[in-house]
Write a structure and sequence with these properties.
187 residues; alpha/beta; 3-stranded parallel beta sheet; two-stranded parallel ribbon
């Protein structure tokens, strides 16, 4: 079919465990079914783009959150429970994530679509490039909801496939001037 640009939605889960900011050219070692399926889609997108000389890229999102988010994800479930003054049963307060507000993710898609660049299989990390501890996210949620919820830290162990720190290296997307992302100061 004829199209201008295909954008594959990737995931930071493609990287697997890493010790520092994740770069697009890092070796991918997905350690979950989800991460592996995203990795396979990214590989196919790259293959297809280069073989057929069609514009196709992958935007690899880092910890998106916002309206219509799954109710079992950290921020959404914590907001709902905080509004109900229910206990928050969480893992380690020291886990760090690179949170991406869904509207900022949409801005990245729009920036890519409106660019005049010719992109064949390129991969771009989409995140804030900053680590935020879960403890800060929860503190802010409790503050903004005026909640009396009790926090039960370490109620759940770290998942075997999880990293303590998860952050995007966003130099490539900045280099291409594709990002319209504004870092969320509230996180």
């Amino acid at each position: 079919i004829d199209y201008k640009l295909f954008i594959n939605t990737g995931s930071s889960s493609e990287y697997g465990k890493k010790n520092g900011p994740m770069k697009e050219n890092d070796i991918l070692e997905p350690n979950s079914d989800y991460g592996f399926s995203k990795f396979a889609a990214t590989l196919y997108c790259d293959y297809f783009a280069k073989k057929h000389k069609k514009q196709a890229i992958t935007l690899r999102l880092f910890s998106p959150f916002g309206p219509a988010d799954s109710k079992n994800r950290l921020i959404s479930s914590s907001i709902v429970n905080a509004l109900r003054n229910k206990d928050l049963n969480l893992t380690s307060p020291d886990i760090e994530r690179d949170y991406l507000f869904v509207e900022d993710a949409v801005d990245a898609y729009l920036a890519v679509m409106s660019s005049n660049l010719k992109l064949y299989g390129e991969i771009f990390n989409v995140g804030s490039g900053k680590r935020t501890k879960i403890a800060k996210v929860i503190k802010d949620i409790l503050k903004f909801t005026n909640s009396r919820s009790k926090i039960n830290w370490n109620a759940y162990p770290l998942r075997e496939y999880d990293s303590k720190s998860w952050v995007a290296d966003i130099r490539k997307i900045k280099k291409y001037s594709l990002s319209l992302l504004q870092t969320q100061e509230s996180l």
